[in-house]
Amino acid sequence: MEREIKLQASKDQLKQIRLLPVLVPLLERPPRTEHLVSTYFDTQDLIFHEQGLALRVRAISDAFVQTLKTEGSTKAGMYVREEYETPVDANAPDINVLRNCIPKKSLVARLLAMTDVGTALVPQFTTTVKRTVLSLRFPDGDEVELALDDGVIESGSSSEVLQEIELELKNGKPDRLYHLALDLLRAVPMRIATLSKGERGYNLIRPMSHAATGAQPVELRKKDTVEAAFECIVQNCLAQIQGNELGVIKSADAEPVHQMRVGIRRLRSALDLVEPLIVFPVSLEVELKWIAGKLGAARDWEVLVTSSLSGTFGDAHSDFDAQAMIGIARETARQHRTEAAAAVDCTRYACLIIEVTRWFEQSQWREGLDEERRDALSRPVSEFAAEALHERHRKLMKRGRHLPDLDPNTRHRARIAAKKLRYAMEFFATLYEKKTLRNYAATLTQLQDDLGWRNDLAVADRLLRDLAATAPDAVVSAAYARGFLASRMAEDYGKLKMLWSEFKRLSAPK
């Protein structure tokens, strides 16, 4: 099993890492330099890539080594995947040799059992790397290989510079890699490398779409403990957050920003569910609020220009010109999107996601737990879920009293209560019969969607007010738009009243 973390670096950063004083006492031997040429093989239709496999043959001096890596999983930049490595006689894979070292009943073995797979393999791309290797041994016995790579990836006429740092655990606890990565990031500001060499090579052949990653269903069982259920829920939220990182950084699509923001909200809602049994570090909560704020600003302006303002000026007089205001709003949205991408692609975010993952992977909430809280975390989650849904239902009923007539700030608090209730319901959905939740979920979803739409209009009003205060050309158009949006919200009064009446007749699932 291979465990490694990759960090993106420049040439200067590679030199800085190489000379870090903190690494000197950990060196087992003098650093060595290798020149590695790796050729990646696949079928013409990239069947290995489709199955999440990467097959390469690496030339090291006069010898050749073939390596097959599975897709595995990635958490906070740590790759955990199966790796099968054997010597070969030439710069070409030997499928027969691979078949002998792979578990017979695995998906990989079934793929390699195809009679023509060996002859169908052709070179797809190469990596040419100058690698400096530092073998580190820590006082507790953990061993890590720190590789500084400087090279290029090439496929036909396409190429990409390759400069990165690999931290591979050779022996010891996986937490060692997180510790070391944080030490390096704090000494030399860098970013997590979100793609492996193989993924970057395939990206030259078939560019990725960086599609948004939505929340996947949480699979809980009634016999799970509260703690086990919490671990499952947090893992689900982190997968959604990290699944949208590349989309936020590289895609122009607004959806990855929205889904990453939702992932953070779901995570914070999950943490709120188990408080005070599990206490999340204040320092990490501050950092979550920071990145959520960056994503939130980008999302708010995106919604304004693509949704809230849509149709606003359709009935305006023909002499009315709103283009100046719309142009300023679009440029502001673009700036906030750029800031959100830069935030996700910076060292501060890299440290945050590593720290949160470490906290989760190491179950750090157990430190200092008293017996009463330990017992509470050992309860069946089915009991906890019923109590949690009842409490969140109660809060929504309290905050939503006279909901259609509430002022925007108070209604916003009710909207947050509805959102938290819906997240909890989705977390615990598999603990209930579908028919038990069907009507409750549908009614709550309709109510929350209406409150969300109203909140978008309230946010739009605030943004337009700010726009008018800083851009004289936007004053008249912003005032017109604010009036139009206020009338739309007023027209929704009857619908909100009906939805709230329907929800008040329901009880929380038991």
From TrEMBL:
SMART domains: CHAD (SM00880), CYTH (SM01118)
CDD domains in alphabetical order: CYTH-like_Pase_CHAD (cd07756)
Pfam families, per the entry: CHAD, CYTH
Residues annotated as domain CHAD: 223-505
Location of the CYTH domain: 1-208
Top-level taxon: Bacteria
Chain coiled-coil ranges: none
GO molecular function: inorganic triphosphate phosphatase activity; metal ion binding
Protein name: Adenylate cyclase
